Amino acid sequence: MRTHQPGASAKLAVRFGVVAFLSVFFAASCGGAPTSATSTPASRFPVSITAPGGATVTIPRRPQRVVSLSPSATEMLFAMGAGPQVVAVDDQSNYPATAPKTQLSGFTPNIEAIAAFTPDLVVAAEDTAGLVHGVQALNVPILIEPAAKNLDDTYVQIKQLGAATGHAADADSLVASMRSQVGSFVASVAKPARQLRVYHELDNTYYSVTSATFIGQVYKLLGLTNIADAAAGAAPDYPQLSPEYIVASNPDLIVLADTKCCQQDLSSVAARPGWRVIVAVKSGQVVPVDDDVASRWGPRIIEFMRVVALHVQQLEKQAA
Amino acid sequence: MLSVQVGAAAVPPAVLAGMPRLRWGWAGAGLLALAASCGVGVLVGPVHIGVGTVVQTLVGGAVDPGQANILWSLRFPRVVLGVLVGGTLAIAGAAYQGVFRNPLADPYLLGAAAGANLGATLAIAFAPGTSVLGVNVVPLAAFVEGCRQDRQRSGRHHRGAETLQAPERDQRAFRPGKPAVSGAYALGRSVTGLRSATGLILAGVAIAAFFNSIQSYVQQTQTSSIRQVYSWILGRLVTAGWDDVLLILPYVLLSVVAIYLHRRLLDALTLGEDEVTSLGIPVRRVRLIVVVAATLGTAAVVAVGGTIAFVGIIVPHTIRLLVGRSYRVVIPLSVLFGAAFLVLADAAARTVVAPAELPIGVITAFLGAPFFIAVMRSTRAAAL
Amino acid sequence: MSDIVLAGVSVAYDGEPVVRDLDLTVASGEWLALIGPNGAGKTTILRAIARLVSFRGEIRIGGRAVTELSSRDVARKVAVLVQEPQMPAGMTVAQYVLLGRAPHLGYLGKESSRDRRIVRDVVRRLALEELASRPLDRLSGGERQRAAIARALAQQAPVLLIDEPTSSLDVGRQQSVLELIDQLRKEQELTVIAAMHELTLAGQYADRLALLVGGRLAAIGSAAEVLTEPAIAEHYRAQVKVIQMNGSGTAVVPVRN
User: Fold this and answer.
1) Dist. CA A165–CA A179, nearest whole Å
2) Res B107: pLDDT
């Protein structure tokens, strides 16, 4: 509900006029991405974005009240400098710490609660419980950016969010930076004498990820063999592995993505029955990572990749 | 006074045949089934280990250390845990069916599972990975909650009008770091008046629903832990180790022995309450002891294995259909066949989609239900 | 000794008095029939004697107060035949009768061969031998009643309390059951207290009748003394004619005008 202050309508009209004029102007000049680092506020609006699901969303003007119901999107928005435009993020969006965390839920969204923030753009990761329908009924554009399957998806999402919030240039440079860092990580892990095996752990009942997942793709890029792929027939994305198999596979590297949920670390892994003989445990190559970093597809995946690449380098040095 | 005619003749066959007895044939079959399933259990798994190696490992011969490690640290304890869990769930199910004279009673009837689920969910959501006295807090919380909220049942039976005292509200929130007081608490709290079976069941249903709702709420708000909670609720022996075996062994033994000793009394309980009392049997005490024993066992195995469904219903009923209804038969055979069943189900859980695992609750339901239907149809059983 | 003395016995359910200040004495080996209109408290008195319900006052069996006895001791003195005994499906006759030995076993005790022989004898006495391994749900009504009696006898208790032994039985079965009980009580010197609604049969088989009305003892004595037209008219509100049949007891015949 907009609160009308005296003179607000006039200001609004002026803004409208400027936006409309400038957007026409820039659209006419073949609306390519500007090369300057900071994008001018009124550039390239209204903008039409075709979200990964196929829906086309039109955002009429630069949003100033963005509500993010997706922790990954939140991270992306803040990384590209759109933070000041974000008025509310969901209860799982705990990074960055300055993000305005609320009780809103991305799993069970409450349209009224969202509406209370008078958003002009809503970003979410999935259309649950009639979210899209409900937000559209409020005449607010909603962008669904679902879980990325690989890094390219992430880059596309960052660019889309950049276009949606008027930070196209920032988004582009963020993507470029990510690409180059990924490239350097991949280059830094020279081809090892033999394929190194990795076991990525989601929780302490041995749920893992296959190469069909986002995180699995990262391992693939770094040239690692993911032991969970053998179980892809049973569960294409997140199989629960048998501990016998894990022990027998003898992974060189164990990545623990259950440090926050399940308090796992090297000592707890070593204490598991039969696990001490695993080469990764014996050589201490058990890497704890932040659960959130490993489960989101935002810019922090670079940090994840950096840590893994570092350990792979260590392994290769040991092997040499 | 009825004068005892101590006749010289032995009891005639017709009369003897009618006496309730566990025949050696069936006991032997149960032991055989258990042994066979354990054999299968130690031989199958996602890692192929030959029979010879298994035997050598057991007798202490020289074997590849990798395989020996898998057998001793993973497979053997998992099979043993399967025996303990399966046997306990089956006997607890039979015990509840006897105490409540309800064929649909299962070990989770009084909400032991709901309480354990809630305890585990709370622990998973808020304090995972922490340990109390060396025991991981998840099974501990499950055990405490599973035992405790059983004790809150109290029924008062007035002649002519059953009135139920409202179950005491659960005031204590789980506080990590406090030592487990479940045993003392559970037994110290006297359940006043367990004379109303229906009342107990109703209270149990209500309590279970209440705890389930809290558990669902917690799960909803702590969505990052959903996968763990889900896997726990369906049950799994995937994390089995000797630690788990040792942890639950005392409770399981206590539970099974106590229920076994009461098998004759469970037969007597099938008469009406007045009739049983008029036979000089302390109904309340029997119910209390059996319920406590069954709950203790159930809570312990649920704490390490999650809430594995079906075993407590399918196994005792199948035995009733195949062998006989007397608890002198059902109780001991439930332990043997329940253990065998679960060991086989667990073997299937880790081989069917190897190297992935299936939640064992899926297997027990999948195997148990059709088997039970087949047995029911083929033996033209009397109404359950 | 198995005489029964009730002194000042009162029973209340939920505050409602059902039996009021009752004094009653039953001699050892006697058959006392409790008669009276519905709700007079007949069943309640039986339950009180068997200590299945709490009461005020005193009840003594063989001189000993039932409240001082453990429930096992009570079960060894008193066997109860309820009006509709539970017959668990699938339980055999022999097993059912064996349950009657419970008061003589320890809490977790097992039956001995002596117990089994007693069951054998009782089963034989009640002509259930061929049915011994048949499940209860495959017996006729009369056979089930005999099984219930057998179980009560297996208890070897000197007192037998019966609640409506003849309800839902046809007239032939009614007679044979009562004859059987009479024979058994003479053989075993049992004291029998039976709540009976069939007045004529009560008069024919019981030594004495106790007429209960509203929880109080309205009359007690022989059939001829208690079964009078004015008494029945007053307490049962029924029109009857009472006929003394020489040697065959007192007949109470409903009259329709």
Assistant:
1) 22
2) 85
* Both tokens assigned to B286: 């029997």
Note the pLDDT of residue B371. 74
What is the pTM assigned to this prediction? 0.80
Contact C53 B261 (CB under 8 A): no
Write out chain B residues lying below 8 Å of A238, CB-based.
227
B340 to B31, B63, C138: CA distances (angstroms) = 9, 28, 34
Report which residue type is found at A143. Answer: L
Q: Which of A244, A249, A269, A275 to mutate to test the interface with B (most CBs of B within 10 A)?
A: A244
Look at B225 and A261 and tell me if their CB atoms are within 8 Å: yes
C153 CB neighbours in chain B (<8 A) are: 2
> Is pLDDT at B92 greater than 80 in this prediction?
yes
Contact call for B4 and C137, based on CB within 8 A:
no
Q: What is the pLDDT along chain A (320 residues), one digit of tens a residue?
A: 444 444 555 555 555 555 555 554 444 444 444 443 344 344 578 899 998 888 899 999 999 999 999 999 999 999 999 999 999 999 999 999 999 999 998 888 999 999 999 999 999 999 988 899 999 999 999 999 999 999 999 999 999 999 999 999 999 999 999 999 999 999 998 777 788 999 999 988 899 999 999 999 999 999 999 999 999 888 888 999 999 999 999 999 999 999 988 889 999 999 999 999 999 999 999 999 998 998 899 999 999 999 999 999 998 888 76
Angstrom CA distances, A96 to A78, A260, B298, stand at: 7, 17, 45
pLDDT of residue A42: 42
Contact between A242 and B75 using a beta-carbon 8 Å cutoff: no
- Find out whether A210 and A237 touch, Cβ atoms under 8 Å: yes
Residue of chain C with shortest Cα separation from B19: C95
H-helix or E-strand spanning residue B351: helix B327-351
Q: How far is B10 from chain C (nearest CA, A)?
A: 8
Q: ipTM of this predicted complex?
A: 0.90
- Give the lowest-confidence range in B186-190, C5-9, C122-126: B186-190
Task: Find out whether the peptide bond into A96 is cis, omega within 30 degrees of 0.
Answer: yes
Do A48 and A58 touch, CB atoms closer than 8 A? yes
Residues in C 43-82 with any Cβ partner in B closer than 8 A: 47, 50, 52-53, 70-76, 78-80, 82
Q: How far is A170 from A41, CA to CA, in rounded Å?
A: 12
Q: Who among B74, B240, B357 is closest to A247 (CB)?
A: B74
Other Cβ atoms less than 10 A from the Cβ of A67: the count is: 29
Q: What is the pLDDT of residue B74?
A: 93
3-state secondary structure of C33: strand
Dihedral of alpha carbons C78, C79, C81, C86, sign? positive
Confirm or reject contact between B48 and chain A (CB < 8 A): no
CB atoms near residue A119 (< 10 Å): 23
Q: Do B357 and A206 touch (CB under 8 A)?
A: yes
Distance CA A139, CA A119 (A): 10
Touching subunits for chain C (3+ Cβ pairs under 8 A): B
Measure the CA angle with vertex B170, ends A103 and B155; round to 5°. Answer: 140
Cβ contacts of C72 on chain B, cutoff 8 Å: 280
Q: Which residues face C17 on adjacent strands?
A: C12
A212-216, B30-34, B128-132, B226-230: lowest mean pLDDT where?
B128-132
Hey, are the CB atoms on B12 and C120 less than 8 Å from each other? yes
By three-state DSSP, how is residue B326 classified? coil
- CB of A147 within 8 A of CB of A214? yes
Q: Could C130 and B161 be called an inter-chain contact, meaning their C-beta atoms sit closer than 8 Å? A: no
Give B243→chain A minimum CA distance, Å.
9
C158 contacts B279? CB cut-off 8 A: no
Nearest CA in chain B to C78: B278
CB–CB of C106/B1 below 8 Å? Answer: no
